[in-house]
Automatic annotation (TrEMBL):
It comes from the Archaea. InterPro entries: Cytochrome_c-biogenesis_DsbD, Thioredoxin-like_sf, Thioredoxin_domain, UreH-like_TM_dom. Keywords: Membrane, Transmembrane, Transmembrane helix. It holds the Pfam family DsbD_2. The keyword Methyltransferase does not apply. Signal peptide: none annotated. This is Cytochrome c-type biogenesis protein. The chain crosses the membrane at residues 364-386, 398-421, 433-451, 487-508, 520-543, 563-580. SUPFAM superfamilies: Thioredoxin-like. The keyword Transmembrane applies. It comes from Candidatus Methanoperedens nitratireducens. Residues 224-342 form the Thioredoxin domain.
Amino acid sequence: MKYLPIILVILFVFFLIPGCLESSAYKDVPRSQLLSDPAVFEGKKICTDLIYENNGFPGINVIRNQNFTTELKNATLVTVCGIYRSGRIEPNSVNPVLAIATEKNVYYSNETLRVHIDFYSRIDGDGNGKLGVSGIRNDFDRPLINKTQDITFIKGINGFDLEFTTPSCEECSALSPGEYAINATVTVSGKTFETYKKITLARNDSNISKNGSEILQSNNTTNQQFNDTRIALTNETSETNKIPQSDGTILVEYFYITGCQKCEQATPVVEALMKSYGSRVSFVKINAKEEGRDLAIQYRIPGTPSIVINKDSKNLISYESYNGDTAKLEDILKEAIDKAPISKKTPEIAQSDNDKLILSVPSVFVVGFLAGFNPCLLAILAFIASVTLATTGKRRNVLLIVLMFTLGIFVTYLIVGIGLLRIVDEAPGLQAGIKNFLVVVIGILGLWHVYDANHLRKNTESSFYTPKAFIRLTESVTKKVSLPASFFMGALFSLIKAPCVGAVYFLILDMVRKGEGTGYLYLAAYNFGVVLPVLVLGGAIAFGLDPGKVEKFRKDKRVMMRLVTGVTLLTIAVLMYMGII
């Protein structure tokens, strides 16, 4: 029995002291976890970081008691330790950590914004850390105020003052009037503390109305949503916004917004400089609010105009780089291009020196000639000539109709080319989609031609169906020898043939859009090649060739022509898919 007191003391130490230690320990719990799984922490001692705003802690009720008597300011990060019960915390301690304040809550464009930061250190002695202030993110997720600096602090309250200029609420900045967050972070020994304050940006001539403002962050948003740290875009997103770049060139992406006055001043200067570089520079204009929005977000441009060289967001020229001095803009852009590395990527038009697709006036003309010669052409010309000769007996009328028919084709392709050029120029993001659509259409037509070649070996009629209305219309036009109607028929016929000529057409239009002097010559040569078969056959019929022989030749050789046309179309589709043309 004399050892009983010793045993009781040992049992007391073994059981009671650990229990006391366990009951006195606080567990650090993130606010988000406390809100998502409250039952797990019911009755437990916890510590959590909360931001005090609107005279309270959003989502969590912290009871006022003898341990919570401190008067806190809004936008203060606070560490609250206490017992969690029924969605409330009974605090044992409430300690402010980080606070951010501004002189007022409403600011206008280009106004001085003074930010005061208080950091409450409980570390004994002096310390070092890093202070960051950023926020007012535009439509492209770019913080328009941003500053980071090293700090030294002591135990207690440490104050820091920073000064910014508020951005303009205008189209060029991609910034609308509304409520925005300013984030403050302090990093000490690898741990980051963060808080935020919301301010309202308004135009000078506007009546401030919260109902009319664009609220970007609401009071119920978790603290993490105001963190400046953003997850990098995935490779998949990058591939979606990929813009082709040819080998041996420098890619210049020019972002603009319709209605932006700064863009209207910068655009002529940029375009003129790009034309002076010719084929050395691949120049792309992108509407940052429309098809280029995802790409603008990827680069996080500060507004428009903005220029990105070789897809490197670090090599970005913004309005702040030249502040309206277009001569300075030209010098900066010229220097950036001259210093930029030449692309070594797989080319879109030309490949290695051994298998390069060489463009020249003769080669473009030959491609156009081959694209313009097909069985449909022989059939329609033979039909036109037969009806004209049977009606008037004059071969001169055949020549006139053929000339107007040809002119209709040429003018239509010219108008379509100019139209496509404007579309691609205003919305370059559509070019890839149009090209992919053409690949599919041309591939289907190629397979159909190959199928029809096999079909004609066993049948007399082709699987291609010519609408009877079109035949009747053609017959009516040729009987009346109506030149305007012949022009219309040529235009209509050119649209029927459009998929056959569209592949190389985009290649030629791209050269014209980049400002290469020979591009227009290539366009003219290609169009002339397309219409030349019509002129040659029409002229031959006008000067004595029997239309019946043309029709007989068509019937005898149509299997071969269908097969050759099909293989050609499939080849074009494959080459377009591979990016060779």
